[in-house]
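Tip: read the tokens left to right.
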């Protein structure tokens, strides 16, 4: 039995320890107090585990948290570290109702292409680095569609990586509503480099 497990482990292209290290801990109260819930996989509905979230400790992996069940609502992107209150993850309330780990984005390259019209029409611009100010770097600041060909990205509604966040991984986004935004305005964006 030991030999079979050893052979399976040797055939995996990504070290198994990467998957075993995914962990996030939700605490009901600020400063890691109150009841807690440990999570190591995607969860579409956290409401049966806790009613409010006052602090979070990310022990492994990067996570996207959502304000409502089924990965809907405001998004919060957290990398490993401690978040003693909601302000640390840029939230104004204690509603965290679903979460998922950021997966399948291993590598050392990032590439995203934005379009000023939906369905990949109009002016376009390709980017491979963080951008703290869209208005200074682009001829257009309304992104109606985009294609992520490499890596994972976080879009922010305000410059300097502030305001509402939106997580984008590899794929096509025909309209800004595909990434959960209520409008096409983007103030800044950055690569997600910690997994």
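Filled-in amino acids:
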């Amino acid at each position: 039995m030991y030999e079979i497990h050893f052979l399976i482990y040797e055939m995996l292209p990504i070290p198994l320890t990467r998957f075993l290290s995914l962990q996030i801990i939700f605490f009901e109260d600020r400063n890691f107090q109150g009841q807690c819930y440990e999570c190591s996989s995607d969860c579409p509905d956290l409401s049966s585990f806790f009613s409010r979230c006052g602090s979070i400790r990310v022990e492994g992996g990067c996570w996207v948290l959502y304000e409502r069940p089924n990965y809907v609502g405001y998004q919060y992107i957290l990398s490993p570290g401690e978040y003693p209150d909601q302000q640390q993850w840029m939230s104004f309330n204690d509603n965290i109702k679903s979460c998922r780990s950021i997966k399948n984005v291993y590598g050392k390259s990032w590439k995203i292409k934005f379009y000023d019209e939906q369905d990949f029409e109009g002016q376009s611009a390709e980017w491979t680095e963080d951008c703290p100010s869209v208005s200074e770097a682009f001829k257009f600041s309304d992104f109606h569609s985009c294609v992520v060909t490499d890596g994972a990205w976080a879009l922010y509604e305000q410059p300097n990586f502030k305001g509402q966040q939106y997580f984008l991984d590899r794929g096509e986004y025909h309209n800004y509503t595909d990434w959960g935004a209520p409008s096409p305005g983007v103030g800044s964006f950055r690569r997600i480099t910690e997994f």
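The first strand starts at residue 23 and ends at 29. The chain has three helices and 14 strands.
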